[in-house]
Amino acid sequence: AINLTGKHMLTLLDYTVEEIDFLLTKASELKLETQKGEVNELLRGKSLGMIFENASTRTRVSFEVGMTQLGGHALFLSPKDLQIGRGEPIKDTANVLSRYVDAIMIRTNSHQTVEEFATHATVPVINALTDAYHPCQALADAMTIKEKKGDLKGLTLVYVGDGNNVAHSLMAVGAKTGMNVTISSPKGYEVDSNVFARAKEQAKGTGAIIQVEQDPFVAAKGADIIYTDVWTSMGYENEQSKHSQDLKPYQVNEELMAVADSKALFMHCLPAHRDEEVTSGVIDGAQSVVYDQAENRLHVQKAILASVISHN
Ligand code: CP
Ligand code: NVA
């Protein structure tokens, strides 16, 4: 049997194929329960500490509501108010918080910070977005694709845009589920070569093809899913005009969707900028599943919380 109690959720590459399958199945079960109005207080009396160094709509609200729905409690912790903002070491913060809460969720620019936090925490640490990974997002995306298309194995997802956190996590989830993932990014915005190599290595277990293709129209040909993200990620605001210029040829528009499969889904982690990385016609059109993705963040995170937090 799968037992994830006490396990951190840092990159997804640290989970086995079976563990990911388990989380996706659990998320679907919890979603069904919630839809039927059943109450499942698995985490009654449990607390989640949530540290946000950056803005968030979906992640914050879905984690907080998820804990409430499971009978527990979530604390929103801003570094502006925590002593960490005045220089208290991560080591001390991680140790002390572990004495109060049952799990810690962190959104911070530096992936290194989350790894360091996890080293010192004695409760599970969940990565809620770093410059390198967005594992909760990729799991919600896999759940959404499964709902819309059935089995993930053999499908092809093409990510068009900045090859950073979301792209990395999509490669990871593809490698673990057997879904082919192609990343199409301009020069200077390519995926990290180490993450790419690790995803390709792990894909051997499922047969997924993980690749890069610089030409978005070549990449998108026949795709089952076209995915994009913002041109300017958090922390890069001062490079916005350069990013817009460099990524312009990678806009997801009607022409690009036309080369994908006629039943292709359009996906975006949100927040989106209409008529920048995606045209209004595409994101507001019939192929778009962006709100389903956002909803599934709630169900997937409940599955993660219920699995990693120790309870009887
Ligand atoms: N997709 C996502 O993580 O959204 P937020 O930044 O609003 O949490
Ligand atoms: N790549 C984006 C994702 C936001 C959910 C960012 O890092 O800002």
UniProtKB/TrEMBL annotation:
Binding site for L-ornithine: N165, D229, S233, M234
Pathway assigned to this chain's UniProt record: Amino-acid biosynthesis; L-arginine biosynthesis; L-arginine from L-ornithine and carbamoyl phosphate: step 1/3
GO CC terms: cytoplasm
Domain of life: Bacteria
EC supergroup of this enzyme: transferase
Pfam family, one: OTCace_N
Coiled coil, from the record: none
Keywords attached to this entry: Cytoplasm, Transferase
The Aspartate/ornithine carbamoyltransferase carbamoyl-P binding domain, residue ranges: 7-147
Annotated carbamoyl phosphate binding sites: S56, T57, R58, T59, Q83, R107, H134, P135, C136, Q137, C269, L270, R297
Protein EC: 2.1.3.3
Location relative to the cell: Cytoplasm
SUPFAM superfamilies named in the record: Aspartate/ornithine carbamoyltransferase
PANTHER family: ORNITHINE CARBAMOYLTRANSFERASE, MITOCHONDRIAL, ORNITHINE TRANSCARBAMYLASE, MITOCHONDRIAL
Protein family: Belongs to the aspartate/ornithine carbamoyltransferase superfamily. OTCase family.
Function of the protein: Reversibly catalyzes the transfer of the carbamoyl group from carbamoyl phosphate (CP) to the N(epsilon) atom of ornithine (ORN) to produce L-citrulline.
Listed name of the protein: Ornithine carbamoyltransferase
Organism lineage string: Bacteria, Bacillati, Bacillota, Bacilli, Bacillales
